[in-house]
Every structure is written in structure tokens, then in C-alpha cells.
């Protein structure tokens, strides 16, 4: 007997169908800060839009409330420092970096690199 793929999917994937989304639309497109929440009420995403395009701070969390990433968009492209976190709360070095025009141009020294 083959198990369905969704059984082994991360809990966040199953919870996505239960997201509640809030934000303002102007002339039919997203404007300002938009949030999406898991069914348990915790934030999933918080992102700013300008005329329907991501522009400004973007943050995302795992279902348990642990930060997943944060960064900035400029005219729909990643810009500046983006920090990605693992479920265990460690910086995901392969994705974390400085972005320009949506492309990663440099790494960011992660919290994992600091020695006590």
C-alpha cells in the first residue's frame, strides 16, 4: 500500500490551506502590509506591497512561531540583507546573504559563525 504524499509533508504545507489573509486592495491590487495567518492564529507571512508588487519588509515564520526568514523587497526584487533560518533556529548559510536586483551578491556572516 502506497502512502499519500501529503502524509509525510511538513505540517506547514498542510496548514497552508487554512491560511487567513488580510490586507487592503486599491484598484484590485494589493497595497500596504498584507498578513497571512495559520489556522492557529500565528503569523505565517507579513509583507508590504506597492501597487501589487512586493516592496518593503517581508517576514515569514514556521508554524511553531520560529522565524523562517526576513528581508526587503524593492520593486518586486530581493534587495539588501536576507536572513533565512532553519527550523532549529540556526542561520541557513546557503540562502542567507546580501541581494541586489533579486540576485545574491554576497554572503552574510551568520550567527553560526561567531565563536564564544
Explain how this protein is built.
It is a single chain. With 116 residues, the chain is mainly β. It has a single domain, classed as Histone H3 K4-specific methyltransferase SET7/9 N-terminal domain (Single Sheet), CATH 2.20.110.10. Helices cover 4% and strands 50% of the residues. It contains one helix and eight strands. The chain has one helix at residues 11-15, and strands spanning 20-26, 29-37, 43-50, 53-61, 67-74, 77-84, 97-100, 103-107. Strands 1-2-3-4-5-6-7-8 form an eight-stranded antiparallel beta sheet, with no helix packed on it. A hairpin with a 2-residue loop joins strand 3 (43-50) and strand 4. The longest helix is centred in the first third of the chain and has 5 residues, at 11-15. The protein starts with 10 loop residues before the first helix and ends in a 9-residue tail after the last strand. The model is unreliable at 1-9 (pLDDT under 50).
Note the overall shape. flat
Write down the CATH topology: Histone H3 K4-specific methyltransferase SET7/9 N-terminal domain
Number of domains: 1
CATH architecture: Single Sheet
Helix content: under 10%
**What is the name of the CATH class?**
Mainly Beta
Average per-residue pLDDT, rounded, comes to 84
- Number of DSSP strand runs: 8
Class by alpha and beta content:
mainly beta
Main sheet summary: 8 strands, antiparallel
Tally the helices: what do you get?
1
In the predicted model, the low-confidence regions spanning at least 5 consecutive residues are 1-9
Please report the distance between the alpha carbons of the first and last residues. Answer: 51 Å
